[in-house]
Amino acid sequence: MSTLIDGLSLGSIYALIALGYTMVYGIAKMLNFAHGDIIMVGTYAILTTMALCGFPAVAIVMAVIVCTILGIVVEKVAYKPLRGASPLAVLITAIGVSYLLQSIAQLIYGAKPQPVTLINFGHVTFGSTTLNISTLVTLGVAAVIMAGLTVFIKKTKTGRAMLAVSEDRGAAELMGIPVNKVITLTFGIGSALAAAASVFYLLQIPATSPTVGSLPGIKAFTAAVIGGIGSIPGAMIGGILLGVIEKVCMSIPALNPYTTAIEFSLLIVILLVKPTGLLGKKRREKV
Predict the structure, then answer these.
(1) Do the domain assignments include residue 202?
(2) Which has the closest alpha carbon to 38: 111, 100, 126?
């Protein structure tokens, strides 16, 4: 029981990160490989704020603000000038931004991992099962965030504009939708989700380093591809599935050393069976 709940909690973190990947790809048609490093920036924002004032609520709000602003700035400075460039040029730029953020963090904070104490919720016992309350908090809050995002996308005017841009950018522009503003907003929302993921990550592993976002970012991208890159429900399902599989494999001693290999093997199998991912759709290109 505890393994399943831990897996759902970890999967929620992956899902929040994967939503950033899939929203940017679905709307801007680019893979932002610097997205994982936004999480790293969020953890350092929390570390710095906690050192200055010591209030967890202020640190969390500051992380969301810093990550959102950073996401918008990165989009304006690095990606917007490449709107009409080849996908390879955008991909190389994204990798460059990723290494730039890691290098800046290393220059400011050093390369060694640093402990980050955010909130200690303690434990709760149900019968013979002992659960970390932070795990339950992660699961509950992440579920609320994902549900809120779904409602925002489907029910609000801005959300419907984002869907229109994802379907056909040219037609959306002809209908008067400000495509550039929609893309910038998408980066901002994705970065805010990454900030939330950084909070939940620190609740699970209370330490940060310049490369702390690399592996979670890669796994979240894997989750987005498994669910169907560009599909918001697919990113959620892919993240939850990957988190549960990871925790189950880690709980079995014989499989524990091969957990990461099993996760990426799952990606290969799913893409062989369904190349578009679980909920992905084939797009017809008009000639």
Answers:
(1) yes
(2) 100
